[in-house]
Amino acid sequence: MSTEPTKLAFNDGWQYAPARESTDHFSIAAQHELFINGEFIAPESGRYFETINPATEEIISSVALASAADVDRAVKAARKAYKGAWSKMSGADRGKYIFRIARILQERAREFATIESMDGGKPIRESRDIDIPLAAAHFFYNAGWADKLEYAFPGRRPKSLGVAGQVIPWNFPLLMAAWKIAPALACGNTVVLKPAETTPLTALKLAEVILEAGLPPGVVNIVTGAGETGAAIVNHPDVDKVAFTGSTEVGRIIQRSLAGTGKKYTLELGGKAANIIFADAAIDQAVEGIVNGIFFNQGHVCCAGSRLFVQESVADEVIRKLKDRMETLIVGDPLDKNTDIGAINSAAQLETIQSYLKIGQEEGAEMYQSSCRLPDRGYWCRPTIFTGASQSNRIVQEEIFGPVLAIQTFRTLEEGLTKANNTPYGLSGGVWTDKGSKIFKMTRKIRAGVIWANTFNKFDPTSPFGGYKESGVGREGGLHGLDAYLKLEV
Amino acid sequence: MSLAAVPKIRRMPDLGQVSLVDEVGVIERVARFQTRSIKNESKTEALKMILSMIDLTTLEGQDTPGKVRQLCQKAIHLHDAMPGLPHVAAVCVYPTMVSVAKKALGENKINVASVATAFPSGMAPRQIKLEETRIAVEDGADEIDMVISRGAFLQGEYSFVFDEIAAIKEACGKAHLKVILETGELGTLDRVRRASVLAMHAGADFIKTSTGKIQPAATLPVTLVMLQAIRDFYYETGRMVGMKPAGGISSAKVAVHYLVMLRETLGNAWMTPVWYRFGASSLANDVLMQLRKQATGVYQSLEYFSKD
Amino acid sequence: MAGSGTRVPVIKTYKIYIDGKFPRTESGRSIALEDSDNAVIANVCRGSRKDFRNAVVAARKAFDPWSDTSAYLRGQILYRIAEMLEGRREQFVAELTLQGVSRRMAKKEVDASIDRLIYYAGWSDKYQQIFSAVNPVSSSHFNFSVLEPTGVVSILAPNESSLLGLVSNVAPVIVGGNTCVVLASEKSPLCAVSFAEVLHASDVPGGVVNILTGYREELTGQFASHMDVNAIVYCDGGSDVAKSVQEKAAENIKRVISRVDEDWSVDAAQSPYLIKQTQETKTTWHPIGS
Fold this sequence. Notes:
- The structure holds 3 protein chains of 3 kinds.
- In chain A, the strands form 5 sheets. A 7-stranded mixed sheet of chain A has the order 14-15-16-13-12-17-18, sandwiched between helices. A 6-stranded mixed sheet of chain A has the order 9-8-7-10-11-19, sandwiched between helices. In chain A, strands 1-5-4 form a 3-stranded mixed sheet, with helices on one face.
- Chain A folds into 2 domains: 31-269 and 469-489, 3-Layer(aba) Sandwich (Aldehyde Dehydrogenase, Chain A, domain 1); 274-453, Aldehyde Dehydrogenase, Chain A, domain 2 (3-Layer(aba) Sandwich), CATH 3.40.309.
- By secondary structure, chain A is α/β, with parallel strands linked by helices.
- The mean pLDDT of chain A is 97.
- Chain A has 15 helices and 20 strands.
- In chain A, helix 6 links the parallel strand 7 and strand 8 (190-194).
- Chain B has a single domain (38-296), classed as TIM Barrel (Alpha-Beta Barrel), CATH 3.20.20.
- The longest helix of chain B has 18 residues, at 220-237.
- The mean pLDDT of chain B is 95.
- Chain C has a single domain, classed as Aldehyde Dehydrogenase, Chain A, domain 1, CATH 3.40.605.10.
- Chain C is built from 10 helices and 10 strands.
- In chain C, helix 4 (103-123) runs parallel beside helix 6.
- Chain C is globular, with a radius of gyration of 20 Å.
- The chains are: A alpha/beta, B alpha/beta, C alpha/beta.
- Chain A binds chain C through residues 137, 154-156, 248, 251-253, 255-256, 258-260, 262, 267, 269, 424, 439, 443-444, 447-455, 458, 460, 462-466, 468-473, 475, 478-480, 488, 490, and chain C through 130, 133, 135-139, 141, 143, 145, 148, 150-151, 230, 239-240, 242-247, 249-253, 255, 268, 271, 273, 280-287.
């Protein structure tokens, strides 16, 4: 028996040849306009910004920069559509339009998946198997609610709100658009939506789908731009409801700016989820759960399991297996079907992540990265873990939004629980144990909106999502996601 | 490459310490292997590797020396129209056919593997099993594929199963021992894991999923659990143990998934016939067809490949 | 005992209620409460920021055990509050009358307050069933959503309907397992303190409900901004108050519940949807396998 730990080798011998998703089955326009009142129109200012492929740093397209005046046009179109066709239409007919969107998305799934990976850097496997099918599923699920809303709210008469202003992030561009638009439409509202400035393309493609589906003009309007455009939507006096997904920092600003306006709002904000591994867990599956929890979508996930708590008696085993598993993760070309971890979404985000890598090391935690080779161009970050981290470390407290895991150990259930809840966030959490009663104790006691027991990072249109504490207000998805888009009259 | 020395004193492992398995997690992981896209030179390399790992098998009541000799010819001459192909790793037969196979294979470096221990049920007294093993080895078997006593295992008679494997291992002498768990009769992945640990500690050189006589035979989830058990055993003891999924793997595509799983679970050191085998009868021809297709770009017909 | 034959009454001291105790405000300040003839009725505590801070600490400490208390028991405790209130109806009627409410209206208000407690007592083990869900996810997982209390809730009780308004806000919050800190009606604070005595006699654990008296203007900002408060309910004020409360609440993304200008006497002032306002939806996933 050797005393040196025996190591597995993954980097020699048989390798996977590039298996690139083709891009010849669609085209991306060199310039994208705003989608207002059922038409693609130029921005009033004539200004455009560029969206780049983070894997190549090449410009993909230029995109209209919407000003407050453009937002105003969009809100007016949405109001007109609300007062006109949309609010007068029966729920059943509204539902049929939304069903159509789901179907067309399914038909054009490959095109959407490819563009999503080009614009945002996420691996094609994820956009193909998760983002796009889930986006279609959200439309399909919510479509069915359109004529059944009264069953969701016993003793109440649900009524639409009017115009919903929606601002979405860059980590799941189409999926977030679906999360926002589908329930808004099902509940009888019209929409002005702004995709993130680094990932506007699939939302604009969705505009094409909406046209193709024949929705009345103005029911959905998509305006592109950065923070100022978003602020113009949030602060527009004729917007009845604001839905935002993004950082807690911006969420705070939005909540503040909505003060006294009477607008309804939902906020899906940041997170720093604890993923807790007990000694009696199915360790190999727990390791998969850790990997899926933090390296899914480059760690650009608000509910990422970015704080790992391992019970001390299995800590060495878990970390060793995790390190071996990290060696098999393929980092690189998002369009390669074998890529596990794609490009970091933007240069700015890469800089943020790198600053945290530095902070973590300076704080005394031990950094380990997989040995994968990175492409020469583009924005990349190796899968990274920090062992020996502490509650007082910034890498434990702050949301990094990258493939960076902070690992701590714990001894007793109470210690694990206390540390898990020791955060201003409360979006999600994970528990791994084979013992049923312990699962229920933990899942009840973790203060977060979504708890995965013996699994992680699972999503479904029927399943509500949203946070406790500073991770947000309100829920999206499922029956519980509907009342954000309704007023409930007695 | 040779098998590492097996420690002489074998100790029954504490099966209560064996890692638990969550079935849904295993299935999810397996699905990821299946989404790997293996193309071009990677595919060609994989297909050749698969050929070299095949234990070409015939285990029928109707087996005759004639049938076995034909199978051995196939093992040597997989498809001579394509130069540069490897030969299979072994021919797997019943003990009564070992001498026939040994002779038919001659000087070719193809092993003769023999099932033993009252294959496939294992329902025979231990003396019979030991004697059958000794006879197969004496007749020239390089490898023995034994079955565990599933009934005893399911009854919780773990030490009985452990002792039996250890005794057969002794009886094997220089022949390598593959231990068939018959996972289709074990019922849960947790039991598969425990049986794997038991077999390795008892001295198995290989662990093998199935006899091929019980459905389900080899599956990706079962094989993953066994590979993870092999990895943990390696972590713990430094000794490598081989893996043989057997039964039901008849398409090249599925076999490639098995290789992907092997690569991402145990790494490159196991990616050789020394440490990995496919127990199969019809897999070779499908692999040959795929190889031909890789070379020519034309989809193939089985009529152009010898059926033995 | 010598004397004139008329007994000298004992005058009640109105204190605040924190952590199941009745301290005076740590600030030592008081507010002289006058009736319509400008005669002093009582000196109530002018609660301070520190009192509020202490109350939040108590409420946070009480949150875990209270939210772990079975729904059945929480229901019985709410019922017990109603029983105690029923037994002290006359006292509350007298206090309301003393603060300028007609005797007829006072009786109505006390009765309605008792009934409201009974209403919510009955909901304690039912609202979860109304608002929970088993979600039919596509993957091999069991997935369910349940409600859980949001945590510590600060309540700015309405100035009018000083008893019924207080009860209408506290009951849906605590029946759901939250704990709270309440600022009583500034104009008519007496019933709130007496209600605290009722709570104290009703098996409500200390810290679950904490009641302060004092000036709205002085304390609203603290109620809205405290980082260890998860939600705020406010019942009075114009858009400037709403704006200020929401702005400060944004500091830690508090849930903000406006019940401005509600008519507390009607049935619409009670509803399981009001319980839901201080609840979080938690969704749990678990694989289905072997």
